[in-house]
TrEMBL record:
Superkingdom of origin: Archaea
UniProt keyword rRNA processing, yes or no: no
Organism annotation: Natronorubrum aibiense
Pfam families: NosL
Keywords: Plasmid
Entry keyword Acyltransferase: no
Descriptive protein name: Nitrous oxide reductase accessory protein NosL
Length: 188
């Protein structure tokens, strides 16, 4: 009888241990910040976010904003995507993270085909307005970029993204530059 009672306690402990382990694992999965299986969706960068390369407040600058989500986690300093006040700085940051083994799961840039942008005189150059609401962004890999135009972004020369090729070509005709696709930007 003593042996049977000990065996019953052992079985009950195993069952309780198994239930506890399963509950802990389930809870950890629910609380995890790793949402890498979810599709990346752009967020608004209008609440005082600063560029992860230069530290300047994004909405205080000219030009396109951008954000990059990574499969293996978040930028070094916070939850969510990395933030940028220029496409040029986004590309610089993304190249560094790729060399560290990080994998992008979503990259978004201001889409000048979908916003009413302004061209503004300032600092002896022509600048394009910034737009950083969530709806102002498009998938960076599907945009066309005007490079080397007379219009400047936050850090001077920048790549100006348009989701419609015709819009990019018209902009380049009016303001100089060439139209390029995403894959060609990484070769600069």
């Amino acid at each position: 009888m003593t042996q049977r009672l000990a065996s019953s306690r052992t079985d009950r402990r195993r069952v309780l241990f198994g239930i506890g382990t399963l509950a802990t694992a389930s809870l950890a999965g629910c609380l995890s910040d790793d949402d890498s299986d979810d599709p990346a969706e752009p967020i608004a960068l209008t609440d005082g976010q600063t560029c992860d390369v230069c530290g300047m407040m994004i909405t205080d600058q000219y030009g396109p904003a951008g954000q990059v989500f990574y499969e293996d986690g978040n930028p070094d300093v916070r939850d969510g995507p990395a933030w940028f006040d220029s496409v040029a700085e986004l590309l610089e940051y993304a190249a560094r993270q790729t060399s560290r083994g990080w994998t992008e799961r979503g990259t978004f840039v201001t889409d000048y085909s979908s916003v009413e942008y302004e061209l503004l005189e300032g600092d002896e150059a022509l600048h394009i307005s910034t737009h950083a609401a969530a709806d102002d962004f498009a998938d960076a890999t599907e945009c066309y970029y005007v490079a080397d135009s007379e219009v400047q972004g936050a850090m001077g020369d920048d790549y100006l993204p348009f989701s419609a090729r015709d819009d990019a070509e018209t902009f380049a005709d009016d303001h100089g530059g060439t139209v390029r696709e995403w894959d060609s930007l990484a070769t600069d």
